[in-house]
Design goal:
- By secondary structure, the chain is of the alpha/beta class.
- It has a single domain, classed as Rossmann fold, CATH 3.40.50.1470.
- It is built from 5 helices and 8 strands.
Length: 184
C-alpha cells in the first residue's frame, strides 16, 4: 500500500496559491485515474482510494492546514499501517525556481513547516516531490505572503505541463521506480 499526501490549505480561497500546489497535483492525479475525494473527518483529510496495477493507493489532502499536516498523515498511516518508506509527500518549495521539480528520499524540512510537521509525526524517511514556486516577487514580499499568493497567469498555464511530469513521478513511486532527481 502507498500513501500519497499533497500539502495545502483546505479553504477554496487558497486553491490557486503556491502553497496548494500539492493539492493541485493530487487533484490532477485523481482526475486522471477517475478517483474522487471524500471528506474523512477521522483522518482530518480528504481521501481518495484507488488501485494502480496491483497496488492499493491512498491519496490524501490534509484539512489540518499546511503547518499541521503531519497530524493527518500520522492518523492515516496508523490506520492503514503504512510505513514511512511507502509515503510520498508533494509540496511547494521556495528555494527552487518555478517549474523545477526535485525528488528526494528522506531528509530535513529545509524550513518548510508542512514538511517539518510531517517529519515530527512520520519521521524523515518519506519520499518527496518538491515543486519550485520561486519567482522574482519572492524577493519583494514576506515568505508567508508569497506562498499564499496566487500563481501568475503564465505560471497557471505552465502548471498543466508541470502536472504531467509530477503525475509520471507519482506513478514511478507507486511502481517502486522513485529516484532522487531534478526535472526542469
Amino acid at each position: 500500500m502507498k500513501l500519497i499526501l499533497g500539502l495545502g490549505n483546505p479553504e477554496t480561497r487558497y486553491d490557486r496559491t503556491r502553497h496548494n500546489v500539492g493539492y493541485a497535483m493530487l487533484d490532477a492525479y485523481a482526475a486522471e485515474k477517475g478517483a474522487e475525494f471524500q471528506n474523512k473527518d477521522k483522518f482530518r483529510s480528504q481521501i481518495a482510494e484507488l488501485t494502480v496495477g496491483d497496488e492499493k493507493v491512498i491519496l490524501a489532502k490534509p484539512t489540518t492546514y499546511y503547518n499541521n499536516t503531519g497530524e493527518a498523515g500520522r492518523l492515516i498511516a496508523d490506520f492503514y499501517k503504512v510505513e514511512p518508506t511507502n509515503i510520498l509527500i508533494i509540496h511547494d518549495e521556495l528555494a527552487l525556481p518555478f517549474g523545477t521539480i526535485r525528488t528526494r528520499l528522506g531528509g530535513s524540512d529545509a524550513g518548510n513547516n508542512g514538511v517539518k510537521s510531517m517529519n515530527q509525526h512520520l519521521g524523515p524517511d518519506t519520499a518527496r516531490i518538491r515543486i519550485g514556486v520561486y519567482n522574482d516577487l519572492r524577493d519583494r514580499i514576506d515568505d508567508a505572503d508569497f506562498v499564499l499568493s496566487n500563481f501568475t497567469k503564465d505560471e497557471s498555464t505552465a502548471l498543466s505541463d508541470l502536472s504531467s511530469k509530477v503525475l509520471a513521478i507519482i506513478d514511478d513511486f507507486i511502481n517502486g521506480l522513485f529516484e532522487h532527481t531534478t526535472h526542469a
